[in-house]
Amino acid sequence: MGGYLAKPKSGSGPGVLVIQEIFGVNKVMRDICDSWAAQGYVALSPDIFWRQEEGVDITDQSQDEWNQAFALYKGFDQAKGIDDLKVSLAFLRATAGCTGKVGVTGYCLGGFLTYMMMCHSDAEAGAAYYGVGIDGKLDDAKGLQNPTILHIAEKDGFVPPDTQKKIRDGLKDNPHVTVHGYANDDHAFCRVGGQHYNEASCKLANGRTLDLFKKALA
């Protein structure tokens, strides 16, 4: 399994596992890793589609790419993917320069997998962006023991209002989970260059994630 690794200029810092969208470890994911590295973190985005096709690197700019992305999404083995992410988490902890503490963040499919990693791994903190499918795995939250943020786009076409309510209601009694809603935003409001990108909302969400990781990974 490959991936993209970015390190801070200092050479050391806490780790951030960046889980891809359905477009592979593309420029958006690499730029996110570079941004974390610029803020003092060792960032790794693993190639979770490697079991189907290695090195997927596509965009959201054409219908053909969307078709390819959805085909990969449908063919993704969730259980094996989570196993791969646990291996990636261990690899990042052991990477030269990583302090050993690691936060997990991800987008869309990666947002869902971030939630699942917080339920089924020992990652110190998590921040999931517009995860799709969390409503079907609310029982897994019994294993969620470390601080986790869910960034929910309230106009998300893939996560309608009733689903959002189910997520909020299902997690409201878990003291480790904080849900932030973004009232005017659609899915992928943090995908730079995407149709629904909102710079202000993304900056707000990223600031909340950074604040969490500063505290949890110190």
From TrEMBL:
InterPro entries, per database record: AB_hydrolase_fold (IPR029058), Dienelactn_hydro (IPR002925), Dienelactone_hydrolase-like (IPR051049)
Keywords: Hydrolase
GO molecular-function terms, A-Z: hydrolase activity
Domain named Dienelactone hydrolase: residues: 1-216
PANTHER family the UniProt entry points to: ALPHA_BETA-HYDROLASES SUPERFAMILY PROTEIN, CARBOXYMETHYLENEBUTENOLIDASE-RELATED
Record's protein name: Dienelactone hydrolase family protein
